[in-house]
Amino acid sequence: MSIARASLVATQGRLRRRQFFGNVASVLFLLSTVFGMLVLAVLLIDIIGDGWGLLRVDFLTEYPSRFAERAGVYPALMGTIWIMFLTAAFTFPVGVGAAIYLEEFATPSKLTTIIRTNIANLAGVPSIVYGLLGLGIFVQVLGMGRSIAAGALTLSLLVLPVVIIASQEAIRAVPDSLRQGGLALGATRLQVVWAHVIPAAMPGILTGTILALSRAIGETAPLIVVGAAAYLNFAPDGLGSRFTVLPMSIYNWTSRPQEEFQAVAATAIIVLLALLLTMNMAAILLRNHFQNKNR
């Protein structure tokens, strides 16, 4: 009886220690989250306070100027929209297609293992390396020049590993019983993947795409390498056009000594954040649509 009681006391002591460390970890994680949100809130308040006064319709439709009161972001805004649209158009089908092949059709082998490992490693490569790769392949070898198409393809290479990995995880999370049920009813492997697996995995795929494009919209280093202009007095009108983007304009204005341009840069940051939130909102609505449809 004493042995059983001693074992019970020891077990209770271990449970209390686990609960204590669990509570400490929860408090630390909560404090980390609150700290990050506070820092973000301070930055947003500071940016909005500096740039809100210049935010007007003219700022979105005017061209850059040597005078802060006349400066606008129209070429950079249109360049950013072009870049993000083309990056999504290039990345989404290629990334999702690669993930579908690796998860549903590729036979387990050393080659597929090497491919998976390389994709995971590519997700951590610095963005400037992709800029040099884009400069060598798209700008020089393929002869695209310093065009908006070369910039979009470079950013596609940058975010493609993230889209592939997120899509793989989403496809892997689909219950295998769904596949087996479709095959048992006489559907082909392709029909099962197209009609059942992809719709079920689409919310996770869109989540990964949102994160990837959110990273791409703020990148500057790869675009500098492939030839994004710091100053441009016209908006892009085609795939071969020269371009600039909002991060480039923000960097250009913040590097100027005049205090007025600091406020212009803050206003451009607000525009960039609004564009990012709009893009994310559209993707989230699509994700919720597929989630409700699957229910």
Tell me the domain tally: 2
Task: Sketch the topology as an H/E string, one letter per element.
Answer: HHHHHHHHHHH
Structural class call reads mainly alpha
What's the CATH first level of the largest domain? Mainly Alpha
Q: If you consult CATH, what is the topology of the largest domain? A: MetI-like fold
Would you identify the regions where 5 or more consecutive residues have pLDDT less than 50? none
Total helices: the number is 11
Q: For the residues shown, what is the average pLDDT? A: 85
Instruction: Provide the CATH superfamily of the largest domain.
Output: MetI-like
Which sheet architecture does the biggest sheet show?
none
What's the helix and strand layout?
Elements: H1 2-51, H2 57-61, H3 74-105, H4 110-122, H5 127-141, H6 148-172, H7 176-184, H8 189-217, H9 221-226, H10 246-254, H11 259-294
Helix pairs in contact: 1-11, 3-6, 3-8, 3-10, 5-6, 6-8, 7-8, 8-11, 10-11
Your description of this structure?
This protein is mainly alpha-helical and 295 residues long. The chain has 2 domains: 2-54; 59-294, MetI-like (MetI-like fold, Orthogonal Bundle). It is 78% helix and 0% strand. It has helices at residues 2-51, 57-61, 74-105, 110-122, 127-141, 148-172, 176-184, 189-217, 221-226, 246-254, 259-294. It is globular. It starts with a helix and ends with a helix.
